[in-house]
Fold this sequence. Notes:
The chain is mainly alpha-helical and 294 residues long. The chain has 12 helices and 4 strands; from the N terminus they run βαααβββααααααααα.
Amino acid sequence: MTIPHSALPSAHWRARAEAHAERADALTAGHRARAARGEKHPIEDFLFTYYAYSPSVLRRWHPGAGVELLDAAGDARVSWRWYAAGSTPGSLVVDRAAMETEKAPLLATIERILRSTAARPGRFGCFGLHEWAMVYRQRDHRHDVPLRLGQAATDAVVEAGELRCTHIDAFRFFTPEAVPLNRFAPTRETQPELEQPGCLHAGMDVYKWAMKLGPLVPGELLLDAFELARDIRLLDMQASPYDMRPWGAEPVRIETPDGKAEYVRRQRSFAERSNALRGRLLVAWRGEELAATA
Length: 294
């Protein structure tokens, strides 16, 4: 599929790049200030440690595939990877063909996951128990944060529920005792077959896929994906067994009927948002719409 070509005047694309950097700086201000002080935040810093993309990468604006930046001869992008001279003298474009050739296996996997996830109905019966499974019958925990209910009561919540995790990057942190309790056995190889839009981690991963697509994705879309991941991370920790109130996060008590209902309500909203972003990524990169079912 050929991406429709468009050309942006210098004033236009430079204004977009500046607005993008300002928005990115606002989104990362707290993290950068804490890093300078040597402090950590178990909720907000996650996106920079787990995904390992720095604020400087996030603030770098790209126009996306098929967009020619006019009067860009003296711009820093001349030396950036995956940029090439455009059809107009002094212009730049993202070298989509070169990137797709060099990264063909990765991009094929990303496209497959984006399409298959959006095409699948969402599952909304996990109630965030993946985080509970990561501490099940375990005295040493990944996060140095007290358990809200204590260890015994936390274990009881897992045993009274049903583990239905479909995401490999959550499942791989389950304790050995929790692994056989899960309905699924996700692997990296089966990820495209198991990913579904109701999964919070799959929703956060839209940001990861946008980052891996790099200059093929417009900067504004990348920041939208980051904001979704940030919002999902908050619910993920609110519904977790950890006591996050010292960081201003009131618990979503998924061990209660009301907590389960709140979790599912927000989970459905995130499924809709993540599928909309999956569609936008494919339109920006491949020029194709997708059918999404949340």
